[in-house]
Design brief:
single chain; conserved putative lor/sdh protein from methanococcus maripaludis s2 fold; 4 domains; about 500 residues; disordered C terminus; 8 helices; six-stranded antiparallel beta barrel; alpha+beta; Elongation Factor Tu (Ef-tu), domain 3; four-stranded antiparallel beta sheet; disordered N terminus; rod-shaped
Length: about 500
């Protein structure tokens, strides 16, 4: 790049900075982004004069505040107390890097003596690329390589950046904290009956249906409601034997096994007590509902004959119901028994039901690679019906607080997971970590960092290129006697 072109670029940059400073000055504000320019001019104005400095020449680029404050103007102006702004010409030295980042210009003076006492190891690339040199050199943009002295490279994994680069790159860091992490898992599900609340009404002997109560499939019944009246010769015979034994017991004869036989035939205790009280055997027996619920099936009509074991009715208590969610096997590790869940019905938008995970089924469906997760829901309002479709949201996460960092802090290369530790004073260190649960924009760290460590959450310049990342992970820097290949544009 020619000297003329470089001078033109510097003039354009200074003119833009002067215009920004003028706007800030008219509003009585100082622009933090111009702090580097201010420091450069202040350092130049307070530095010891060099022998035979060249006289400033060329057109005026802009005007600066006479006190060195961060106020600039593109044309002549005065301060509030009447003093003129000082002109800055195009030929004057302009640098946007902190003075401490530039190598010493003179072999004399205290600064040169301090640098001479330190051992120079090598020169590193000014842009942070994994390129070093044992001798001074420039990169392809004409920027000087920066010296690295003994003590500055004690840890080969540490990346050291100048304050100017950190400010321009937008580095932000955040402390590692302990907090709970939750990640809701959203999956489809279906409403199913609680298997423990289903009852089948059946006889244990052959019987004839004398009369069926006016209940139908889908109707609700309460425990003890009459369902059907039957006539069973076997039950009638066992009842007659029971009456005979009761009468004989009054004469001192021990009671036989007729009572037990009636119980074995499924005769309800209320009917047995009635026979014992009246000493009479009813011609027909009333069969009643064993629980509250709805009628799922009705398999009888008046006059039909039922064989032993045939189902007369099938009842279900729907006050508590299940929702079976299909969870992908990749999410199973994040779900635990007792985890909270929210059920939303597709047929009732805006309606939600709260429940808890009661069981994770011990098999994975081969076709869908999902596992059933059972959620128990209070359904005393009766809004949930069997086979309804539902949207399920299961809360997952760590049981207690864990070390966590933002997702943006983790660099995942596919084989390694790394965070960049902010060690202060412009030093950054890549650290390999082990990850845990993710959720709420955070990720748990099980190994690699400690509470209170600061991690970089916004520093794309550290991982902008694959070469930068690999160099950071393997340790930046090279022995002084080695000269790595120069990166060319």
């Amino acid at each position: 790049m020619s000297r003329t072109l470089l001078a033109g670029l510097a003039l354009a940059a200074v003119t833009a900075a002067g215009a920004a400073g003028y706007v800030a000055g008219t509003r009585g504000l100082a622009l933090p982004g111009l702090d580097r320019l201010h420091q450069a001019f202040m350092a130049r104005s307070t530095a010891a004069p060099k022998a035979g400095p060249p006289t400033a020449a060329g057109p005026v680029a802009y005007y600066r505040h006479p006190d060195g404050a961060l106020f600039y103007a593109p044309e002549p102006r005065k301060t509030e107390d009447g003093r003129d702004f000082l002109p800055v010409r195009a030929s004057e030295e302009i640098s946007f890097d902190p003075p401490a980042a530039r190598p010493a210009q003179s072999a004399a003076g205290p600064a040169a003596a301090t640098e001479a006492e330190r051992k120079l190891l090598y020169y590193r690339n000014p842009m942070g690329l994994p390129d070093t040199s044992p001798v001074p050199k420039k990169d392809w943009m004409g920027m000087d390589y920066l010296p690295v002295y003994a003590g500055e490279d004690a840890d080969g994994k540490v990346i050291k950046l100048s304050p100017g680069r950190i400010q321009r790159s937008g580095v932000r860091s955040q402390a590692v904290l302990r907090q709970a992490i939750s990640r809701p898992i959203r999956v489809p599900g279906t409403v199913q009956l609680d298997e423990r609340r289903i009852s089948v009404v059946a006889t244990r002997s052959d019987a004839f249906i004398q009369e069926v109560a006016p209940v139908t499939t889908g109707g609700r019944v309460a425990k003890g409601d009459r369902l059907v009246r039957i006539y069973s010769p076997e039950i009638t015979a066992a009842g007659a034997q029971f009456v005979s034994e009761l009468n004989a017991a009054g004469r001192g004869v021990p009671e036989g096994g007729a009572r037990q036989r009636l119980e074995n035939l499924g005769v309800q205790p209320e009917i047995v007590a009635e026979i014992e009280r009246t000493r009479k055997v009813p011609l027909t027996i009333v069969w009643s509902a064993p629980r509250d619920g709805i009628v799922l099936e009705r398999n009888v009509v008046d006059g039909m004959r039922m064989a032993s074991g045939d189902s007369l009715f099938r009842l279900a208590d729907v006050s508590m119901i299940w929702v079976l969610a299909d969870v992908p096997e990749g999410d199973l590790a994040a779900i635990r028994i007792g985890a909270p869940a929210i059920i939303r019905l597709r047929g009732r938008p805006g309606t939600e039901f709260a429940g808890k995970v009661g069981l994770i089924y011990p098999q994975v469906a081969e076709a869908t690679r999902t596992t059933k997760v059972r959620i128990e829901i209070d359904n005393r309002a009766g809004m949930l019906l069997p086979n309804m479709y539902a949207d399920v949201e299961i809360g997952s996460g760590e049981a207690g607080p864990v070390l966590a960092v933002p997702d943006s802090a983790v660099i995942d290369t596919g084989t390694r997971r790394v965070v960049i530790l902010d060690r202060g004073e412009g030093r950054f260190e890549p650290r390999e970590v082990r990850l845990g649960q993710r959720g709420d924009g955070m990720v748990a760290i099980s190994d690699g960092v400690s509470e209170g460590d600061r991690v970089v959450v916004s520093a794309n310049f550290l991982i902008d290129a694959e070469s930068n990342l690999k160099a950071a992970l393997s340790g930046l820097g090279a022995p002084a006697e080695q000269k790595p290949a120069e990166i060319k544009p």
